[in-house]
Structures
1.
Amino acid sequence: MTVVDQPTSRSPAVPPRRLTMAKAMVEGIASEMERDPSVFYLGEDVGAYGGIFSSTTGLLERFGPERVRDTPISETAFMGLATGAAVEGLRPIVELMFADFFGVCMDQISNHMAKIHFESGGNVKVPVVVTSAVGGGYSDAAQHSQCLWGTFAHLPGMKVVIPSNPADAKGLMIAAIRDDNPVVYLFHKGAMGLPWMSKTHRALGEVPSEAYETPIGKAVVARSGRDVTVATVSLSVHHALDVADEVAADGIDVEVLDLRTLVPLDREAIVESVSRTGRLVVVDEDYHSYGMSGEVIATVVERDPSLLVAAPVRVAVPDVPIPYARALEQAVLPTPERIRAAIHAVTR
Amino acid sequence: MTVVDQPTSRSPAVPPRRLTMAKAMVEGIASEMERDPSVFYLGEDVGAYGGIFSSTTGLLERFGPERVRDTPISETAFMGLATGAAVEGLRPIVELMFADFFGVCMDQISNHMAKIHFESGGNVKVPVVVTSAVGGGYSDAAQHSQCLWGTFAHLPGMKVVIPSNPADAKGLMIAAIRDDNPVVYLFHKGAMGLPWMSKTHRALGEVPSEAYETPIGKAVVARSGRDVTVATVSLSVHHALDVADEVAADGIDVEVLDLRTLVPLDREAIVESVSRTGRLVVVDEDYHSYGMSGEVIATVVERDPSLLVAAPVRVAVPDVPIPYARALEQAVLPTPERIRAAIHAVTR
Amino acid sequence: MAFATSEEVLEAAVCVDLYRTMVRIRSFEERIRSEYHADKSPGFDIGAGRIPGEMHLAAGQEPVAAGVCAHLRPSDAVTATHRPHHVAIAHGVDMAKMAAEIFGREGGLGHGRGGHMHLFDPAVHFSCSGIIAEGLPPALGQAFAFRHRGGDDVAVAVTGEGAANQGAFHESLNLAALWRLPVVFVVEDNDWGISVARPASTAVASNADRAAGYAMPGERVENNDVEAVYRAAGRAVARARAGEGPSLLEVHTLRMWGHFEGDPQTYRGDLATVEDRDPIPHYRDRLLEAGILDEGSVEQIAADAAAEVERAVAFAVASPEPDPAAATSYVFA
Amino acid sequence: MAFATSEEVLEAAVCVDLYRTMVRIRSFEERIRSEYHADKSPGFDIGAGRIPGEMHLAAGQEPVAAGVCAHLRPSDAVTATHRPHHVAIAHGVDMAKMAAEIFGREGGLGHGRGGHMHLFDPAVHFSCSGIIAEGLPPALGQAFAFRHRGGDDVAVAVTGEGAANQGAFHESLNLAALWRLPVVFVVEDNDWGISVARPASTAVASNADRAAGYAMPGERVENNDVEAVYRAAGRAVARARAGEGPSLLEVHTLRMWGHFEGDPQTYRGDLATVEDRDPIPHYRDRLLEAGILDEGSVEQIAADAAAEVERAVAFAVASPEPDPAAATSYVFA
Ligand SMILES: Cc1ncc(C[n+]2csc(CCOP(=O)(O)OP(=O)(O)O)c2C)c(N)n1
Ligand SMILES: Cc1ncc(C[n+]2csc(CCOP(=O)(O)OP(=O)(O)O)c2C)c(N)n1
Ligand SMILES: [Mg+2]
Ligand SMILES: [Mg+2]
């Protein structure tokens, strides 16, 4: 869905520019397409539509239908096409419209795209970026609201990056395109700053105009604090920052760690933060069990269980399909309310 | 592959019977097919071949081609067929020949089979058993050696059971068939007792002749010990027991906890064991990150980090596709050597 | 292969039923549309209002639902798509419970868990799914179960022309043909898969041509003609009931509105002609001309439909919101 | 649609090349077979011995590989299946490095990481995969890249008749046709998908009939006839090179041995006739009769092939085992 926005102000006279994550992502793609003729984008409704979640707005007009290609609804075929094209030296970006659809084409991703480099003993490179929309919060129900980053991150051979803000959206996109490996790039619909979806007041952010890479594999302290580490990614970073501001009033000083990349995971940053705060809350819009939240907790205690002065708490989707009705969905998402309760629990 | 075995001795005069896991699994299926005409089995090479890993040996002869059905290589179609048949009151068992192939049909499993009950508000039941072979150790390389139980267990709506021994193979099969939910039943090729694959000396086990259910969601202490808990599943249970016997000589008393079910996970059993031993090793033939090993560790510390007197250790496949060459494969599998080293590390 | 063509004149009662079903559907879709947009402004916030989330409506595609489902009984199964309401109504899904589900209420078909893309009514063996073409495989299983228990019930799997390029389509047709399952595959060709025009998604002009690849009959109905759909579907359903196996039926239909509500349709060149192609006034005029309907019965049908929809929406809005404390219920039976 | 049929007589040199390729393949497969079984006894332990793991050999299917790949250049791409050796050899994959990979050695194509189902030789754009039909989509991408960079290179995707019922087959054919990609799809119909006979997997007698569903030419070659394969593949490759889009070619071939080594083939009723149907002696006799080969050249070809295979195996066994300390290398570039 697209409601036409104002064109981004590009006057160099009035920095800093503030963009939505969607525009920053597109800017990252466009700058690489400009620089490198081997980059192209393919997926469903990425051409004239500009991406259901505005991931490609304006690219068709700028780069033409050879390089911005609408596909049939044949995810297995076009994922594999991206792999084959990458093997021959192109640098495809391929969109899986919703991460929820992974199951119709996961073999091409996890058994092929992700494994060819290894199976070939390093002789073949597969520089593909797989973009996909994740997340709920707008009643799109069980098949259109999942995050599933735990599913991608569990399987070896692909990097997994998840920008939470416009600057990282651009920088991680450029880094992903330049990376010689398959990189799964998951963008949260609720963080894209779409005009037709309710958004956090943090949706706009400063984005440098020039091309730059945000390093893959590096977490960032989005807010530093002494009392508790909230480790999270994606839209939940915004919620965590909001809650951190609130509980500061109660005298709780929250550190928010934006992991940004799940593969490779910046384990040092996690351990370093928790070794200062002694307390850990993991906020994860993916399912609770066998995913990111457990991995982050294990990362700390396998280093040293005594780093934790209190039991860590997870705020995740409680192993239930995402319900449709608003009240039910809000009950299972990692809302600010649940994050606040977890921070209180862990600092009690 | 099948090398014809001797028919199982069925003389009631000479109990206890010792069966392979494959035969015990088939016995569980056969006893339910006998009892309940709505049970049928479908999959690739499950008829005349009897299952590539002997999961259905003899069933065609006994129950005929209407109830033991070879399918085309169309996993999406026949997985979905199982779902639709279950919705209408049948009780299909459907085989995905290797769990590695999940990516060609995961949508039918995780978005349909697993979610319909929820989406229908409980009005539709989907009693399907998905059987699948897992595991490596015989140089079947990156696309035929994975365990992937973390992938299945991460996604809500399906139970996940993983027998390690013949008695549980039969009892969990019967429980899975009688369960009104989708149950993923993962059997390790190396634990099936196949005549053409090297096997552990623990491959044969006593199996009661009558029908019985092994409770889904209950772990079992396979060996009790005071010093360290080794939590694991599947073939690794055998390795853990072997190592436990060995290190007993060094005065280390190992408790081996066979989780048996990943969904629902018997968190109480894990916490209870670790609260006695204070030390935890998780052995997991699936990939290291974002899977079972992290989940088990998190389960302990989110109850109470001080239960652990030493940092827990994971022995898992280190986020690498399974290599082909024997020496490489052995280096990444959770071998007895690696388990022993972990036990020593954690009890040091 | 093609169906035997028989151009017999339909009985008046059948025509009236087809017309009534189309009107009931349109009435429902128009009402849902207005309810959906009623409280999403200013601007348009997809998650806001009494009906949140994506909304795919089927105005213009009534001939497919009406023509196919006229041949079905409640014991026959139907699997539909992300755009399911027309098929649901035509197959007799409880309209009030369906409305309540769309409103996310406890009284809904799925107690508010499923939403408009996940409607399950076991009473008429109806289901749908938001994943393209993935509704086909479960239909095979329903057909399999029907044959297993005896009788001549059938399963109908509906899909879009865009979805016909998904792997599940191929696998399902082959397996259904191979096992001679009583299934009818219906492709709704509405020219578009979201913004992708049919020639940009499909290498062949008619999906009916694909039927030969499964040794099953294939037929394409042009012009969104409800009576032609009725006839072709009748042949396919009869074939399935007779144990002769599956058939494929494609209907060239019309998506009158956006892919989903909020779709600006800026990609669409054929918008100007859409209203003129609305199948309902055309069919009404034909039945008036033929003397099968008169102005009074047309009004009566419209009024009845409006009243039925009114009752359904009233039931929906009167139904309580689900209790958030039970958000994790129904994961396991 | 079908290819134009031209029954022109092949040049003698072409015939000899076809024969030589088949002999080289058979020689390799026989040697791998004996190496594979050499040290798996007593009993049969799949994971034991110098060549561990599953082993899918292609004896009997040489006409497909030889006939198709005769039209290819090293700059053309080929994606093969779990049964890849014949195609690899015919397309010019380095036999020594391939043997080393099969033996799991550092000198292998994948430094021992891949194994016999995962052979990658970038020098000739060759790859294969153990997942049914999933080698097709990457071939589209190679073809796409070739067209992008200009020139007339093509991609050939080989698959089994069992695999032709997998969703990836359908999606790939449609997309290739839609984008007019220079691809040739080759289906090896060896009557069996492991233990499942073709009539139990495929609703249609010839996959060539499925080509019409993608508006591409389809042709089926009967009798495992290498010259007929050569001719048909020539038409398909020429079409692709000329920018006219993809074609589908099915060859009725023969799986002489088990699905994999160790397969007892108890399910197989046609075993008794297999030896008589071996395509290599038949073709040899034909060329002898036609005076294109004489006994001397037959022996020379056999001796050359044996020597080549001997060198390859010698290279393999001389290559070191990979270092377990590097087991986690090559995950990321
Ligand atoms: C596997 C999968 N891919 C993509 C989508 C996103 N999507 C939803 S509807 C749609 C278009 C469907 O087109 P068509 O099948 O023609 O049905 P129509 O919407 O026209 O009724 C797409 C691409 C999806 N739901 N599932
Ligand atoms: C998606 C998938 N399903 C199942 C298998 C297991 N499998 C390996 S080979 C094979 C049979 C393939 O038959 P066919 O395509 O005819 O090739 P052939 O073995 O006869 O050469 C099967 C079912 C697989 N590798 N991938
Ligand atoms: Mg459409
Ligand atoms: Mg075959």
Note: The first helix of chain A runs from residue 21 to 35.
2.
Amino acid sequence: MKIRYFAWLRQRTGCGEEEIALPDGIATVAELAAWLGERHPRFAEALAARGIVRCALNQVYVEPDAAVRDEDEIAFFPPVTGG
Amino acid sequence: MKIRYFAWLRQRTGCGEEEIALPDGIATVAELAAWLGERHPRFAEALAARGIVRCALNQVYVEPDAAVRDEDEIAFFPPVTGG
Amino acid sequence: MVRVQDEPFDVGAEIAAFSWGATHVGGIATFVGLVRGTHRGERVRAMTLEHYPGMTEREIEAIEQEARRRWPLDAVLVIHRYGRMKPGEPIVLVATASAHRAAALDSCAFLIDWLKTRAPFWKCEETDHGECWVEAREDDEAAARRWL
Amino acid sequence: MVRVQDEPFDVGAEIAAFSWGATHVGGIATFVGLVRGTHRGERVRAMTLEHYPGMTEREIEAIEQEARRRWPLDAVLVIHRYGRMKPGEPIVLVATASAHRAAALDSCAFLIDWLKTRAPFWKCEETDHGECWVEAREDDEAAARRWL
């Protein structure tokens, strides 16, 4: 699966995107985020601040309980500030 | 004083503007309009349809009880439809 | 700034010239009203706008001042035509610039709503059945009352 | 129509090319968002907008569809830039055309309100104290909620 990070989450993880295999026992966006937090401590910090990390699954906004599969693209980012 | 008519009030009175001397006993816009209605029967008809004739005194909207003087410019017109 | 004129105006050029380069402006809202080719199902060939020279400018300037009193605006432009126009031609342009998006958007809507019920203009349409003065619309009055 | 692009765009030319000549259009509303030269009292030298290619277009198109579902619109244009911009440069243009004034004005405000809280863009400002990611604003969230 492809994991993407944007804005200051990209800077804190030190990577814009990474390819990983769906880890065993991970079924939802929330579980995946927690697992990724072990690789990227500063991503874990951001996750701990509730409401600050948004998630898109295959380029569509989803809630933390959305199911993930190995072929998905999952993106994490802060609240948007365009316009 | 100068009396002006616009839009279909201009067409019904047959004149865009006319100069008159302030008639004796006329103190307000409403009294003046009634007096003008005797000169222009179709203006009187329009006045009879309440709310359909607007008035400006020296180019500022006024209510029928506004006082008029001989040096004023008084305009009568239907509700506006610009924009 | 208020301009009342007989001549057509170029919407793109007017907007391009409006308030750019002021680096504290965060948002510019514009509204353009156009002559429609139909009215109540009838084809409109052309339209003539009569106005009250002098009072028109005075009244639009008063509406501009009211907008500036209500919102923090960096610039305001109102151009309104009179005379004969064809379908598709611009009648009126309102543009507002502000540091804040909501101020630009709200004041632009306010200006056109009040213009439509207060500025002394009258539309006379030419249709296949002759000429006809357009009647004032209750929903324009309702739109203007939102701001009272 | 939705365009997401790195290149600057010419606001006057875009608006001039937008939906003119359709004689059933009675009103065109536009909003332009610009880079401001100050933010929280600090001078902003430049700003870089990061975005999520693919999702950005998809999300703005979804917002356009929602606007078309809510209002009778003849045309919609959204142009949004990404990349590095200087104060005074346009970031975003929204334009809507409708037979009805209120539909054009309301849908234009709706589009920019939802864009600001849903389209995946992130602003990073360059000030005298270095680079700083702009934080989301509660009043943008409040503006977006008006339409729910």
Note: The beta strands of chain A are 2-5, 17-19, 54-57, 60-61, 73-77.
